[in-house]
Amino acid sequence: MEKQKNTIGRRKEAVARVYIGKGTGAITVNDKDYKTYFSLIYLQNQVELPLKTIDAVDKFDVKVNAAGGGIKGQAEAIKLGIARGLCEINPEFRPALKAAGLLKRDPRGVERKKPGKRKARRSFQFSKR
């Protein structure tokens, strides 16, 4: 891959290092094809979304190192990393990606556990007697 760009995408606890460059449309995640790594179709669609938005599914090769979190967090981190990489390659892609909401990092995380509670908001079972 010539003129390769590397970017980072994050979501919850997941971090994805994305390497993107001109190619034939191959997407590999942790040395596996993304369709094998993400068995659920909606997660595969999340990974493809930035490329579909700019009609470039078969124009770029993407290699990803994903770590941390769960598979949903990793898929969304990859989505952000690909969108950022496409903006670095060609700034003309930015308006379309921004309009689709692909350049914003989702700030939501896990709420912390509070004292006297079982989880963040879940209480212990109340017993009247």
Task: Describe this protein's structure.
The chain has 129 residues and is an alpha+beta fold. 33% of the residues lie in helices and 22% in strands. It has four helices and five strands. It has helices at residues 34-37, 41-53, 71-89, 94-99; strands spanning 5-11, 14-22, 27-29, 32-33, 60-67. Helix 2 runs parallel beside helix 3. The termini are far apart.
SSE order, one letter for each helix or strand: EEEEHHEHH
Gyration radius over CA: 18 Å
Discrete helix count: 4
The count of DSSP E runs of length 2 or more, i.e. the number of strands, is 5
End-to-end gap: 70 Å
Instruction: Classify the helix fraction into a percent range.
Output: 25-40%
- Look at the helices and sheets and give the structural class: alpha+beta
Which residues form runs of ≥5 with pLDDT under 50?
Answer: none
Major sheet attributes: 5 strands, mixed
Strand order of the largest sheet: 1-2-5-3-4
Beta fraction: 15-25%
**What's the overall geometry?**
elongated
Summed over residues and divided by their number, the pLDDT gives a mean of 93
